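Moderator note: this is an archived Q&A kept for reference. The question asked for a predicted structure of one protein chain; the sequence and the answer are reproduced below.
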Amino acid sequence: MRPSSLSSRLILSSLVVSVVLLVATGLLLASLFTAALERNFDQRLRSVLDGLLANIEVTAEGSPRLSSAIVDPRFGLPLSGWYWQVVPVDAAQGTADLASNSLLEQRLTVPPEFAGKVGVQAFYLTDTLGVTLRAIAQVFTLPGSTRQYSVLVAGNYDELSAEVQSFNRALISSLVLLALGLALAVFVQVRFGLRPLRAMQAKLLAIRQGEVTELKGEYPAELRPVADELNLLIQSNAEIVERARTQVGNLAHALKTPLSVLTNEAAGQETPLAAKVTEQTGLMRDQVSLYLDRARRAARAQGLGAVTEVKPVLEALARTLERINRDKAVTVTVDCAEALKFRGERQDLEEMVGNLMDNACKWAAARVTVSARPAPSAAGRSLLVIAVEDDGPGLPPELRSQALKRGQRLDETKPGSGLGLAIVRETAAMYNGDVQLDEASLGGLRASLTLGSAS
């Protein structure tokens, strides 16, 4: 999962909320369980306290006496952690008091903040063995006596703590399992909920590859407006491209007639002015053709959905150039995968590669090789590289950048206008591509054309 991913954000935020809620729930349940155990423990101690009050009587000598024994055997085991005692409030410990056998000779002391208070008081103590005790105490005036006695009952709180710890372990295990289940449920829910977005992405890719022309299918109510707007955008783009092509054709037709009239008028006269008009109208015709071609290429490059198979184009160009250069006996070999596709118009690919192959055939001694390979993706785009190599004299490194400039001819003995490599570079740039010149493995020049791939 990537931090910038929408699914990652949804999953992580849901997991954070779930963990916070589960922790809060665990703490609340543990607190409620502990409170319930303490209340139940206090009720057990209160039952023993009530039993003591019902069975304690004062003798003629003024000492408290238990009329019947407490049934619970833990009060009879020495230092068992379960104790009771009846001591006078206004006398020293051990004077006219009564205690369970489990206390032996020791007595429990009520904390000062609870001593003498009216009603049942609950607090914690520690016996001689270091056992934590939960105790309740109440001051009574026993029947047959005018003295006040503090009746105290204590139980082993460590037993309660063991129950709490056992419950907490079971609770933690249950909440961990619940958290894992919730994580799985959140993951499945997010994946299922975002499935329409992945379907839309796949269909947009199909549009870019030229397989379909619009987004079709049923989408959720939240995505339906997005799909409609994308379809309108695709339609608007296609209309702009078609309008540009129409306007380019209209401009070419509108300029062709005036230029032809000027050329014909000047051709019938043998004057310096006529020669100048013929020269300038020729330049105008070339410039118009150049910029009209550039406009047509730009319109095609901005279109969506155009995809061209690379291998048929390369093989057709190789056959044509071998026939054209039959006198030189130049062999053109092509190495290209069947599935490789160019994301653009066939005419533009033919023009770019054709210029490179034609230039290689002009300078080659006997061999020209053309290879097309997928290139590492960059900025989310799939790329391909078409390399054209020859076994000619090559080009020094300091002249390679100059050769890509418009109108630069480095050797006037070869036919051409010096525009071929510049046109290749301009057309490639319209497709966000590039062309580079380097030394070929055959010894001549290597021209590498990088373009967007639809494979």
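Archived answer notes: The longest helix spans residues 6-55.
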